[in-house]
Amino acid sequence: MGKLFALMCLALLMVPAEANWLNDINRKVRSLGAEEAQFATPLSALELADYPSQYQYQRVMVPSHDTPLFVLQAGLEHQDTVVLIHGLGDLASKDWLSVIPALAEKYHVVAIDLPGFGLSQGVVFTYSPKEYAKVIDWVIGQYRHAGQLRLVGHSMGAAISLYYASQYPGRIEQLVLVDAAGILDRTAYIKHLSTRDNDQADLPQGMRRVLARVDNFADKMLEKTGTGFDPTRLFSADSSVRNMTIGEQTNMNAALALMEQNFSVLSYQQLPATQIIWGAQDTVAPLRTAYALQHVLPLSQLHVINDAGHVPMKSHPQVFNSLLLASLQASATVRPLRTANLSQRVGRCFQDDQTQFSGQYQQIILNDCKLVRFDNVDTQQLIMTDSILNMAKSRIGAVGQTIAVTRSVITATDTDIVGRMISDRSRFDFAGVTFYGESPVFVSQASTRLVLSLTRIITATHSTRLGGSYVLAEQSLESAL
């Protein structure tokens, strides 16, 4: 080992860093002691018919699962490596074919078909983020070059990449998430699928109030299912049952495993700088997910493609490629702190006579308002009665203050709640929300339901990460954990 290291150092002094064979030496030195890749069934011309001929292709066996894995490489002359992880669907790595040429001009590109997908059909196991993260770690150990490593994931692949970065800290220098799926609590996601757009200017306000009540009732029913019996958990309890019933149905296997992963409890503080790219019209992974992720990721930057859907690299390839290349060179910064709120302004709403709020307030009072929206609101006090509120990018409350919510509904995204929130027969859907204060930060006086995604409680003595559905009687949220 000492002689090999000396030879490597001598080689570094004598030859250009971009030499292909030197990359191979670096990779082999790094993987000494690790399991070497064994080739699986050779790839046929028919299997590679849709792939460009100038790239390098292999099908190797992954030792951790003894399963075949299809690996595409391009830009082999470059030092910095970009690993691409695809989402659900039959195309697998083909989803990246419009992206790879642009990346390969500057980076060594590695794209794989996850086990069970594309040209990696083989052993059946639980296709979960945890198991796929093991595969990704092996791929990185085998194929990365000597420079920096960037991990890019789309949809399910973005969720898997997020999980990998949290469970294998320090392995990658940058993370890029594209329309990440499966991050929100399943009840929040189902509610999103059933939501209609009631914010149409051509509808009379009275009609919109009626529709808001109808949707509120539907959401209430869906939230009740979130705390009831879930038949899909039968598959979670016994892997043999899963493999016998849906194991070979790859998309279903992977989708269920993705839903079972609670992304709210991951440790986000140790994640590398993260770029988030999202299609504003994504109906599969709502844009709300991106804002919630931005809330919990300490070093992150969000880029939205306004008229794109769930697969922006295929619907808007030029815009996406330009944005991705710029993102790979960008350095995410910490979000600036809010300025002190010294406002004396009071905001009021009665039966939706004022529905839009923004800026700083000393107090906001809502009474029988069903269409209220807070956008970048900072208020020291909030009093709600018989109202429905949707808020984003806001800060509610102040140290020592009480937020009173009675017979009301709040949907909050990317929001800080300071002080103590008191709920009386109310419902809450929080995604990317942080409570700051003295415990208990949230108290139910009667019949409260909460749907939590990427939610945190931070007090002077502890920090807690929360996700899932909760039903509270006369108790605090902390007591229900």
Structure commentary:
With 481 residues, the protein is of the alpha/beta class. The chain is 28% helix and 32% strand. It has helices spanning 2-14, 20-30, 100-104, 129-143, 156-167, 186-194, 205-226, 233-237, 239-245, 250-260, 287-296, 312-315, 317-329, and strands at 38-39, 56-62, 67-74, 81-85, 108-113, 149-154, 174-178, 273-279, 300-305, 346-350, 356-361, 363-367, 372-379, 382-385, 388-406, 409-424, 427-436, 442-446, 448-458, 463-472, 475-476. The strands form 2 sheets. Strands 10, 11, 12, 13, 14, 15, 16, 17, 18, 19, 20 and 21 form a 12-stranded mixed sheet that branches. A 9-stranded mixed sheet has the order 1-2-3-5-4-6-7-8-9, sandwiched between helices. It is elongated and about 70 Å long. Mean pLDDT is 86; it is low at 1-34 and 227-232.
Question: What's the structural blueprint in terms of helices and strands?
Answer:
Layout: H1 2-14, H2 20-30, E1 38-39, E2 56-62, E3 67-74, E4 81-85, H3 100-104, E5 108-113, H4 129-143, E6 149-154, H5 156-167, E7 174-178, H6 186-194, H7 205-226, H8 233-237, H9 239-245, H10 250-260, E8 273-279, H11 287-296, E9 300-305, H12 312-315, H13 317-329, E10 346-350, E11 356-361, E12 363-367, E13 372-379, E14 382-385, E15 388-406, E16 409-424, E17 427-436, E18 442-446, E19 448-458, E20 463-472, E21 475-476
Helix pairs in contact: 1-2, 4-5, 6-7
Question: Biggest β-sheet: count, sense, barrel?
Answer: 12 strands, mixed
Helix tally equals 13
Distance between the termini: 51 Å
Summing up helix and strand content along with how strands pair, one would put the structural category as alpha/beta
Strand content range: 25-35%
Radius of gyration: 25 Å
Stretches where pLDDT is under 50 for at least 5 consecutive residues are 1-34, 227-232
Shape: elongated
Assign a percent range to the helix content: 25-40%
Oligomer: single chain
Q: How many beta-strand segments?
A: 21
Q: Average the pLDDT over all residues and give the rounded result.
A: 86
